[in-house]
Write a structure and sequence with these properties.
The chain has three helices and no strands. The chain is mainly alpha-helical and 92 residues long. The protein has a domain at 22-34 and 76-92. Helix 2 (25-35) crosses helix 3 (77-91). The chain is globular, with a radius of gyration of 14 Å.
Length: 92
Amino acid sequence: MPRPRTISGSGLVANGLPPSTHGGIPDTSLMMYLGGDAWVRKDKMVAGDPVLPAGVRPDPTPQVNNGVRGDPAPLHARDGQALFRFENEKMR
């Protein structure tokens, strides 16, 4: 069985995925795993403002201004499953 990708924090970049926060890869993949198509409208997924490296000051005017930070597109429900399991293990 292949090792699941790490999809939170620095694990995104380490696995060749773009950094994201609110509405990005971790949030959306978790929702896909937990609720499937009932919770995620895949036809409405769009990229938001980029997540900037630490210390970089953002432009005061958001570029996209849709509430999403990053791009949720390169995700899968299996990533949400891995995140769900990881978070549950941390709580034990």
